[in-house]
Hints:
mainly beta; five-stranded mixed sheet; two-stranded antiparallel ribbon; single chain; Ubiquitin-like (UB roll)
Amino acid sequence: MVSVPPAVLGPRPGAEQSVTVTDTLDPRIAERLRRDAEGLVAAVVRDHHSGDVLMLAWMDDEALHRTLTTGRATYWSRSRRRHWVKGETSGHHQYVRSAALDCDGDAVLLSVEQVGAACHTGAGSCFQHDLPVAGQVAR
């Protein structure tokens, strides 16, 4: 797991801080990423306080760079073919408090302070529909 120093995570909501923004993703991070055929990695997003999983999104190098340097969750929309900052139209912002890469480099875990709903449906989490699991073993 690669942790990102808190200094690059951006300000808490309402806090005044300046963040130095460079033009590209840190090469030490970029070389650890294992992207899919479209150049994307999965971004698993969880609530910073509760640990609840809120959503899954996709990031390219630029989205990850923007996220790490601004502290605002930025993703790649596969349907719209463009970057989007969570909350730019809905007002349901995500302020990134920590970020980590998984052991394979093909997924990023973001812990965020969620303002408003995380899901585009208006729900707190995109994971609302439990599925039946056969063969569950009792503990």
